[in-house]
Amino acid sequence: MRRLHFLRHGPTHAKTMVGWTDLPADLSDTALLRRVDDAIPKDAICVSSDLKRCSMTLDAIQNGRRRMPDDPQLREFNFGDWDNKAYAQIAAENPKAIEAFWDNPGSIQAPNGESWDQLTARLTAGIDRLLRETSASESDILISTHFGAILTQLARATDMSAKSVFSFKIDNLSITTLLYHGPKGWGVQRVNHIP
Question: 186 and 2 in contact (C-beta within 8 Å)?
C-alpha cells in the first residue's frame, strides 16, 4: 500500500477563479505549517505543482524530505479566458456557460481552458507517472497541489461523479490522504484534514 498525501496550497486571498494565474501563497500561519509538517511522515517523497503558491507551500514544510522537480501536470484547472476573473463578472458575460461548467462538470470547458474531464485526464496521468517513477518501498508521497486537482483524485478513489465530489470542502493547508493498493485499486484515509 502507498499513501498519497495531497496538500492544498496556502491561501492566495484572491476573490477570483484562480487557475494558472501564478499568485503567491500566504504562509504567515507558521503554527499551522508546523502541524502540517508533523502530520506528514518524515520519509515522504515530495512533489509540487509548478505554480508558486504550491511550490512555496512545499518549501515551507519540506523539512529535509526528498523533493522531486515541480510538475506542471499537477496544476489547477486551466480556466482560460475566465482565469483570475470574479465569478460575478463571468456570470454577467456568459451566465449559461459558467453555470454549466460548475453544475454539470464533465466535457464543458472554459473558453480557451479545460474541462473537468481534461483536468482529470491530466492529473491522473501525472499521478500514475509519479507512482511509476517512485519505488514501491517509498510508501508516502506528499503532493502540494490545488483544489480541483485534489478533487479529481478523490473522485478516482471513490468512483464518485464530478458533481458529487464537488460537494467536498478542501481547505487551504488541508491534507487529503488517498491509499493506493496497486491492482486492487484505491481507498480514502482522510479528506480535508486540518492538523
Answer: no
